[in-house]
User: What shape does this take?
Amino acid sequence: MAEGFISRGFRGRRRDPDLDGRLPPGQYATRDFPVLSAGPTPRTSIDRWDLRITGEVEQERRWTWEEFLALPRETFTVDIHCVTKWSKFDTAWEGVSIDTLLEGVDHCGSYLIAHCDGGYTTNLPIEDVTDGKAWVAFGYDGESLGPEHGGPARLLVPHLYFWKSAKWVRRLELVSDDQPGFWEELGYHNYGDPWQEQRYQGD
Ligand SMILES: Nc1nc2c(c(=O)[nH]1)N[C@H]1C(S)=C(S)[C@@H](COP(=O)(O)O)O[C@H]1N2
Ligand SMILES: [Mo]
Assistant: This one.
């Protein structure tokens, strides 16, 4: 009993048995929430903010901030994994699932391209953002999502490396032909599965 208690204390968090199997290869767990942005934090005021669905769709969609917040929302707790090797367990979010946003949208897109304030883009197969796998999140840890972490709203796709979770997202474009986004063009993996360690092209 005493021994178990002591050794657990000395081994530290990374050996917490609850976390076994939750850390993808080459990652370490952190309690911090690092900020990683390729440019300055855009500050779009809420009255000018909108979210649009465009591309190969029968009819485009657009929500103002107010309309977006009136959509059915979900809270969810997930682990996130950054390609720079930090993982953060049990992050708690609130957002609107992509399934909800695509409800009743007739489209023939096989890929979703996320477009952000500031010009950042990222590409995802449609199967990876539907069936409860992705959200546009506006809340984190019980508060509204801070601008440095992508507020007012960001894409959240926790099963892929965190660069796929586009901050300050404004437009979801549905396309039939894949188009590499910002990091994908710069040599990062096109898909980015942390469990396969798909960090860079060729991994
Ligand atoms: N618009 C935008 N989204 C982005 C980025 C960015 O530079 N711009 N960086 C990506 C990367 S590489 C990571 S790891 C996460 C970091 O999110 P965080 O700053 O909330 O930790 O956002 C992703 N989404
Ligand atoms: Mo990242």
Notes: The pocket of MTE (ligand 1) is lined by residues 33-38, 82, 116, 118, 120, 149-150, 162-163, 165-168 (CB under 6 Å). Confidence is low (pLDDT under 50) at residues 1-11. The chain is about 10% helix and 30% strand.
